[in-house]
Design brief:
The chain has 22 helices and 24 strands. By secondary structure, the protein is α+β, with helices and mostly antiparallel strands.
């Protein structure tokens, strides 16, 4: 039997304050979290929505060092940008605070002390890299060296960004400190660990047996981690930015950011409700729901619950509806490569269109698998759904009412079968949308809400009130009354999804804020009710606007390619006599054709001055065969023949690889006699 709760604490993952928020964050966490909270508020259920910035950790210290400022300067800057962006998009936090607040420092310190004093930690001494010049232990990101896998000389101690391989500092060749450039040495250091292995059996029962209703991606990732068996995890580290470890002799150590950050949910609640915060975190009749992305599943389903269990007085999460990742134009969103749509930039490029992005991100929500955002899809959903379905129906209903009844809701004169059929179609919308929202299926819930507008458009098309008005105004009254009731239902059904649009729609309808229980009613607007001036809710987005966004991304991609391009290392020195062995000549292309069943290969027939020869070259993706006929190319004439796709290739055509990976055939500046040698 499902447990009934008196109230709900909803948290949204704390964004890291070293950069702005992008659409991946919104789709994965904040839009679904806000949708759910708005839904609960509409139902008049007690709920608080907790958010805040995660402001400690090594990446912030690295950024501060690069910019020549203090870590506090970095987090102050991005905390404001992030907070303002959330407010602009209607993410309705009850509080959006930060982990550098004094309240958080107090709560996190107390949490550590509770576990420390009850002997829940394991103390371990180990050897770690130490910078003898800077006189400090080095976090993995503060150690650089040569990657043992690809030879990249600028790999970090935790990952090589060139080949993507995860590393440990011990694997690096010729490691050095990113702070001073000195060669680090190994020194002993002591840290405290949370023995997650002690909670493995309890976690296995709590998650795998008691929470089978969790999303498959969440349940599956938890099971995978538990099956690999849990290991103790350090809760402290050597760093000067963070919450100091409250233990004598632990100077120069802070709480590890993974331990410190989730406590931010609790401290932010205490900041919001200093006298009653415990009700929202310790009362068994409170439901705790975490909204996160899939990269945070382990922390919110295994690590944080183990922390709460160890402390002993807190409730545990009832559900963790984590989303997968949202990609951008077929490529993974990357802050380091600037491959993202940033919220603060979107607000400038698309003023007043916050709900359009909210709608598209929900429609494409990566609830069960990674999904893709494209600007063309964004345009199509706006033009074909918000404008052509939602906006079109509302506009038609209100324009016709204004024309025939002076913007006053007409009375129902008589209900025909077609009217009763329409009523039957939308009276159960509440139960359908509600069921989806209760089960965190926001994509389906929004789609079901949009069906109200589809029903309305079809109803107007079938009844044609503009024609009926010529002979039967009483009939028109019923048609437009029901149409306006549908419009009012849209204002309720879409309130969790499109808050700005629904606020505008309610003003147009001169409609009070009905609660969720009114959804599905055909008497939301009384006859004679006078509505306000109507206006278009949405507008078409033209091709040139979308093309500008596409070009912006293409420019980013090009800039990344140029920035990351590095000429290949010069090969080992060879004697001039070795070079003289190569016979490089110019030939004229007589024929050129694609090789069947080989996407990359072209077959050339070359006039080499002495005879004709066949050469197969892997440049089909860079040239059209017909464009090469008659051109002169440079080729190696004395290369041993070899077969490619059954064709004997008698040489090699020379080409250069560009920054973007494309190939350019080497051609003489002006025409020369076929067979001329390249010297």
């Amino acid at each position: 039997m499902e447990k009934k709760f008196k109230r709900t604490t909803v948290t949204a993952a704390l964004p890291y304050a070293n950069g702005p928020v992008h659409i991946g964050h919104m789709a994965g966490v904040y839009v679904p979290a806000d949708t759910y909270v708005r839904y609960l508020r509409l139902k008049k259920q007690p709920v608080i929505f907790i958010g805040g910035s995660d402001e400690h950790g090594v990446p912030i210290t690295i950024r501060a060092r690069k910019e020549g400022c203090k870590p506090q300067d970095i987090v102050d800057r991005y905390h404001k940008i992030i907070k303002d962006s959330f407010k602009e998009f209607g993410i309705s936090f009850d509080i959006y605070s930060r982990t550098t607040s004094s309240t958080h420092h107090e709560v996190a310190t107390q949490f550590f002390e509770d576990l420390y004093k009850s002997n829940k930690f394991v103390e371990k001494t180990s050897e770690q890299y130490y910078d003898p010049e800077a006189k400090q232990f080095l976090a993995d990101r503060y150690i650089t060296g040569t990657c043992p896998h690809c030879g990249n000389e600028n790999a970090y101690g935790d990952q090589c960004e060139k080949c993507g391989t995860s590393l440990s500092p011990m694997e690096l060749i010729n490691p050095k400190s990113a702070i001073s450039g000195a060669q680090p040495i190994m020194c002993e250091t002591t840290h405290w660990y949370l023995p997650l292995n002690d909670y493995e059996e309890w976690l296995r029962k709590w998650i795998l047996e008691e929470h089978k209703e969790w999303r498959p991606n969440v349940y599956g990732q938890c099971k995978s981690w538990l099956d690999m068996h849990l290991q103790p995890r350090a809760v402290t580290r050597d760093l000067d930015w963070g919450i100091p470890v409250p233990v004598k002799g632990a100077e120069g150590k802070v709480l590890y950011v993974w331990f410190d950050a989730p406590i931010g949910y609790i401290s932010n609640t205490k900041e919001l409700l200093p006298d009653s915060w415990e009700t929202w975190w310790k009362d068994p009749e409170t439901r705790l729901v975490h909204f996160i992305g899939k990269d945070n599943i382990v922390f919110h389903c295994i690590v944080f619950p183990a922390m709460l269990k160890a402390q002993g007085s807190f409730i545990l999460p009832d559900n963790v509806p984590a989303n997968e990742f949202l990609n951008l134009e077929g490529d993974k969103i990357s802050t380091s490569r600037n491959w993202a749509v940033w919220l603060n930039e979107y607000l400038v490029d698309f003023p007043g269109k916050q709900d359009v992005l909210r709608y598209v991100l929900t429609a494409n929500a990566p609830e069960t698998k990674d999904n893709d955002f494209t600007w063309k899809d964004f345009q199509a959903r706006n033009n074909n759904e918000l404008v052509a379905i939602f906006g079109n129906f509302v506009n038609r209903a209100m324009v016709l009412t204004s024309k025939y009844f002076g913007s006053k809701v007409p009375a129902v004169s008589e209900m025909l079968q077609i009217d009763n059929d329409i009523v039957a179609e939308f009276v159960d919308v509440k139960s359908k949308v509600e069921n989806y929202l209760d089960n965190f299926r926001f994509r389906d819930a929004q789609k079901e809400a949009m069906n109200l507008a589809r029903i309305g458009n079809k109803y107007l098309a079938d009844t044609e009130p503009w024609k009926v008005a010529k002979t039967d105004m009483a009939r028109v009254q019923t048609i437009l009354n029901l149409s306006l009731q549908l419009v009012a239902n849209l204002a309720i059904a879409f309130e969790p999804f499109l808050p700005f649009t629904c606020e505008k729609l309610r003003k147009m309808l001169n409609m009070p804020e009905f609660d969720w229980n009114s959804l599905g009613s055909i008497s939301l607007l009384e006859s004679g009710h006078e509505m306000n001036q109507h206006e278009l809710l949405f507008e078409k987005i033209e091709d040139d606007v979308i093309e500008a966004q596409v070009q912006k991304l293409l420019a980013t991609k090009k800039a990344n390619e140029e920035a990351n391009y590095r000429a290949k290392e010069i090969r080992e020195v060879v004697d001039f006599s070795d070079f003289e062995k190569l016979d490089i000549r110019v030939g004229t292309v007589l024929e050129c054709n694609k090789v069947p069943k080989a996407d990359k290969l072209l077959q050339f027939l070359i006039e080499d001055g002495l005879d004709k020869r066949t050469i197969v070259s892997g440049i089909a993706k860079h040239y059209k065969p017909e464009d090469l006929v008659g051109k002169q190319v440079c080729f190696i004439a004395n290369l041993a023949p070899r077969k490619l796709k059954g064709i004997e290739s008698q040489g090699m055509i020379l080409s250069a690889e560009n920054v973007d990976g494309s190939l350019s055939i080497i051609m003489p500046e002006k025409s020369v006699k076929p067979g001329s040698e390249v010297k």
